[in-house]
């Protein structure tokens, strides 16, 4: 899918902005603080109605204005859909083709956007929560079955934690809910294990295209207990062992909500040994991987890579750009761009200008 038209009204620093986009690579170039990320933030907002920079939607409305609006046209094969999102201090209104949206999943079906944000550079060295978030978002978009499984698990986890917080814990009730929780965790770890195997192979393809075949990456899933035919028995043993501690601390200490994964680049843990450039490249490959794991080609997401080129050497930048040009539609932001590849937009104090060049 691609976004063909974007209109911002009182969104972030823009009073009014109208842009048309082509498929392929779109490059937003301009100095610090000029409004490049503001544009890609709006594009990303189309997918989950959430900003990657803030949880506070009020910050997205231009200072001094009451209402901010994002309008976009999304083309997916032959179907063209218009999304309108109105943001204000009292919440947001979302329309697809002028009809109100009731479920957010409707939105991500129409506009699926993958984003690499500057903070993702440290994803391998970040808290496990950041890696679980990546996995959960990717899998939720991948399958509604996963969404059902994780919702059920989270409901049971909350229930178990509430039981643990009772003044006199009902041990029978704890036993019943623990068993339900273990059963609910099985599909989650199976999904995660399978998905990470696929992510691993995509990451290696990206790495090969950019760095050559002598490099290789290996993702290791770190589930709370081993995933195998004896999963239920092993998990039960683990919950038995941690029960006393859970009763004391009044919280569930083990389960998929504590899962993690790590990545080795050429046999060494990237978080501990990788250079900044290596971390950046592998983080980009990780964040891009869901793109290649969507079977229906027309549903492949729009890719947003905010401030992607910094810290990468020239050769890596060239190869990355060549790689990105093959995707349906990619947006990158950068402060300097000496290349001709892609459609270039100069972001300046007077607005955004599409640069005329070859093929325009
Ligand atoms: N709600 C808002 N109202 C008005 N201006 C805003 C609002 N939110 C952010 N801005 C302004 O937008 C500017 C930042 O824009 P943006 O983050 O897009 O810059 P950038 O071009 O990505 O810069 P960098 O290269 O440093 O990442 C800041 O000057 C900020 O004050
Ligand atoms: Mg920026």
Task: Describe the fold and architecture.
The protein is of the alpha/beta class. It has two domains: 165 residues, Rossmann fold; 135 residues, Glutathione S-transferase Yfyf (Class Pi), Chain A, domain 2 (Up-down Bundle), CATH 1.20.1050. 41% of the residues lie in helices and 25% in strands. The chain is built from nine helices and 15 strands. A six-stranded antiparallel sheet has the order 2-1-4-5-6-7, with helices on one face. A hairpin with a 2-residue loop joins strand 14 and strand 15. Helix 3 packs across helix 4 and helix 5 crosses helix 6. The protein is globular, with a radius of gyration of 22 Å. The mean pLDDT is 95. It binds adenosine-5'-triphosphate and magnesium ion. The site of magnesium ion has 5 residues, from helix 1.
């Amino acid at each position: 899918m691609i976004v063909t038209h974007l209109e911002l009204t009182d969104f972030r620093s823009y009073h009014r902005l109208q842009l048309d986009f082509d498929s392929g690579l779109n490059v937003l170039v301009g100095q610090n603080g000029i409004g490049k990320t503001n544009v890609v933030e709006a594009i990303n907002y189309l997918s989950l109605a959430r900003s990657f920079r803030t949880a506070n939607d009020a910050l997205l409305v231009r200072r001094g204005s009451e209402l901010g609006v994002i309008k976009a046209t999304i083309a997916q094969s032959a179907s063209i859909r218009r999304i309108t999102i109105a943001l204000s201090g009292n919440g947001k209104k979302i329309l697809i083709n002028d009809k109100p949206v009731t479920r957010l999943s409707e939105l991500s079906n129409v506009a699926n956007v993958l984003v690499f944000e500057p903070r993702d550079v440290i994803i391998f060295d970040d808290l496990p929560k950041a890696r679980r978030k990546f996995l959960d978002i990717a899998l939720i978009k991948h399958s509604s079955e996963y969404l059902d499984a994780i919702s059920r698990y989270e409901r049971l986890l909350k229930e178990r934690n509430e039981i643990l917080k009772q003044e006199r814990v009902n041990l029978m009730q704890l036993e019943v809910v623990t068993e339900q929780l273990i059963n609910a965790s099985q599909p989650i770890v199976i999904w995660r294990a399978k998905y990470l195997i696929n992510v691993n192979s995509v990451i290696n393809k990206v790495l090969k295209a950019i760095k050559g075949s002598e490099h290789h990456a290996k993702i290791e899933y770190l589930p709370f207990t081993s995933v195998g035919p004896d999963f239920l028995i092993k998990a039960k043993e683990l919950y038995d062992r941690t029960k006393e501690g859970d009763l004391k601390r009044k919280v569930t200490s083990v389960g998929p909500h504590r899962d993690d994964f790590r990545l080795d680049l050429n046999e060494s843990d990237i978080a501990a040994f990788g250079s900044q450039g290596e971390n950046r490249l592998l983080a980009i490959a990780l964040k891009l991987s869901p793109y290649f794991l969507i079977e229906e080609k027309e549903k492949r997401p729009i890719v947003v890579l905010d401030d992607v080129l910094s810290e990468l050497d020239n050769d890596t930048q060239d190869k990355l750009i060549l790689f990105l040009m093959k995707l349906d539609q990619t947006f990158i932001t950068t402060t300097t761009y000496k290349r001709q590849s892609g459609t270039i937009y100069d972001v300046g104090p007077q607005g955004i200008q599409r640069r005329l060049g070859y093929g325009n």
